[in-house]
Amino acid sequence: MIFILGVVLTAQGQANLLNARVPQEVGALNDQQLEANDEAPLAYGFVDDRDVLWSKTVWEVVELDERVNFPFYYPTDTLNLGPDRRSLFDVLKKNLSNNNIKEVYKSSYFQERLTYPEIQERLVAVDTTDAGYDQFNADGFVDPQFIERRRITAAEIRQYKIKGTWYFDKRLGELKYRLFGICPVAPDVAIRTQAGEEEDLVELFWIWFPDARASLNKSKVFNTKNSSQPITYDHMLNSRRFSSMIYKEENVYEDREVKDYIYEDALRMLLESERIKSVIRDFEQDMWNN
Q1: Torsions phi, psi of 234, nearest 5?
Q2: In 186-289, which residue ranges form alpha helices assigned H by DSSP?
Q3: Which of 80, 96, 152, 276 is the most exposed place for a label (fewest CB within 10 A)?
Q4: What is the pTM of this model?
Q5: How far apart are CA 185 and CA 35, in angstroms?
């Protein structure tokens, strides 16, 4: 019984698992399943601008060291896992290389587009070792063996930043959320930090989320409560199945961040984030009470 449970958990709800005679048949779909298997993401409904009574755009940070956010971080080591088990960063990176995701930008305002070579530059650091510096000082050149190239991997992603808009649809009478951008955040590959030093985190690139939905809907997240029912990354993000903190809201002060007006006080920053959340959450309730 324990062995069977272990197989199911490892397979993560793969198709045809219980009917497979050989490992190669695991994941194979019959004709009826292929016809019923719709990998297109659930389309957003049309929202007329006249139906939007109120809206607020916010930027949030999803810390990957929080347990509830682990499904976005793991797995970091995929050598012993099947191709259906990948972290969010690996899924994004793969679809960027396959040109399935094209709308990639430098900032969250989606004005300056990045090409794939420019994205690659942000993921790789070229550094010279101490021996290379000694050789350059002595001989005036550096051998290739003293040049290090370091590439960011899924294990180094510390956060995801997301941008979205809360809006009140007066036709439906509901407060709803629409996600627009997602950005992986990692330590700056150009800076080598010593043990115990605080890492300097940088935004790698901003992806226009609607352009990535088709790709994210084909990739499954491990469901810790029921391995036979995996969830897609598109569903996880659209349904807000994560823990986050608001670090910025649109405002008259050039969209300044919370840290720009609350200095070096983590508790007050957290309370300010909760205050902004309360303003958004209470708007719908206030609509019905007025």
Answers
A1: -60, -45
A2: 209-216, 233-238, 258-261, 266-289
A3: 80
A4: 0.82
A5: 38
